[in-house]
Amino acid sequence: MEHAAALAAPAVPVPFFTQAATLEAVWPQAEANLAEVIARGKYSHGHMVERFEHVLAERIGAARVVGVGSGTDALVLLLRAIGLEPGDEVVVPAFSFIASASSVVLAGGRPVFADIGPDDYAIDPDAAADAVTDLTRALMPVHLFSQLADLGALAEVADRYAVSLVEDSAEAIGMRWDGRHAGLHGSGGVLSFFPTKTLGALGDAGAVITDDDRIADTAAALRHHGRFGRTLAHFPGIANETVLPGFNSKMDDFQAAVLLAKLTRLDADIARRAELARAYTERLAGCPGVRKTPVLVDRGVPTDPVFYVYLVEVERRDALAAHLAAHGVGTETYYPVPLHLQPCFADLGYRAGQFPVAEAACAHTLALPLYPDLPDAAVDRVCELVRAFYTGNPT
Ligand SMILES: *Cc1c(COP(=O)(O)O)cnc(C)c1O
User: Fold this and answer.
1) Strand ranges, E, within the chain
2) Class of domain 266-391
3) Ramachandran angles phi, psi of 386, nearest 5°
4) Considering just the CA atoms, what is the radius of gyration of the chain in Å?
5) Which residues lie closer than 8 Å to 351 by C-beta, 6 or more apart?
6) Residues of the chain with CATH 3.90.1150.10
């Protein structure tokens, strides 16, 4: 009888993402910060944004953090700030979020794709080297899911061909290579504070991060219509003139207020994510149908991984996702279409089959729920559902 009752009880849904409990924990601090913004009356590009930029810069060990409207904007501004010119090529992995490549187009350049490695899902350094031409201006590795691209080898390729290294480190807050934070290994990088990210706001926000004052100053001007506002060391004598056609991509002080509060628990959030990832990997070990759980690649130097996304490679991916959805479990496909086959890049002339590792990743990977609010029991349930799907034993 008890068994029948348990079966009949509706299972608690497991959303792909929620941050309700995390937010509740930091709300008193967030509320105080928000009240301060309201009292000061400047809601964008104001003192809370400046405070957030300084606190975050200290935290990640960057000389400069420039808060902007989104991670995507940060990529466009960073590429513009390094001086990308029309026709310049940027080597980008074929497997990433669309913005890694569309930012290149929006900054006036041309993305050139390269295949990825099968374990880190990041650009393969040899493939990146092969993609370099006389027009190459930069390599743009993307650090996805839980670990950094091979920055040692990529910095060496960038040096060899005298091209810039810019990092799409939108997902990589907390990740370090030999002690140095993601995004600070070449000209600069970006962070996204989209709500689902490891440090998530309550809407869109992002940042350019760099140790180069000229790049930071240029990005800071570009976010604000190309106005420098104050006299800056690298651009003497210009205060209020517009010297570059810019954007309106200022960071919102209300988002900065929330982000400053959430920053106080970033380490705890990262530790909880690691704990949940370990639990998934243990419970999915040997599960039929699961081809691969995350593999952290040994780089020969200390690296700090951060589980932003828990990605598995599975058989019959879409059917598994549908099975989980039918049982109230949310999943995501990161990323369903490789960049070289996206319709918006059709004029670049790529074909299916050119980047087999990226194409296989698009076909077989699935992201399972992973966020600090997720209870241990939810991991058990998701793993039981996965096992039941492949063994044909309905739970
Ligand atoms: C989230 C993300 C972006 C874009 O950031 P937004 O803040 O959503 O604009 C860019 N690149 C990667 C790899 C991302 O994961």
Assistant:
1) 64-68, 89-93, 110-114, 136-139, 164-167, 176-177, 180-181, 188-192, 206-210, 290-292, 303-304, 310-314, 365-368
2) alpha beta
3) -65, -50
4) 22
5) none
6) 266-391
- Taking the C-alpha atoms of residue 149 and residue 129, their distance in angstroms, rounded to an integer, is 14
- What are 143-183's pLDDT values in tens digits? 999 999 999 999 999 999 999 999 999 999 999 999 999 99
192 lines ligand 1 (CB under 6 A): yes
Q: For the chain, where do the domains classified as CATH 3.40.640.10 start and end?
A: 23-263
Mean of per-residue pLDDT scores for the chain: 94
Query: Does the domain formed by 23-263 have CATH 3.40.640.10?
Result: yes
Q: Is 171 in the pocket of ligand 1 (CB under 6 A)?
A: yes
Question: For residue range 140-149, what is the model confidence (pLDDT) as tens digits?
Answer: 999 999 999 9
Ligand 1 atom nearest to 192, measured from its CA: 7
Sequence-ordered alpha helix ranges (H) in 147-235: 151-160, 213-222
The pTM (predicted TM-score) of the whole model is 0.95
pLDDT tens readout for residues 270-302: 999 999 999 999 999 999 999 999 999 999 999
Ligand 1 and 103: CB distance under 6 A? no
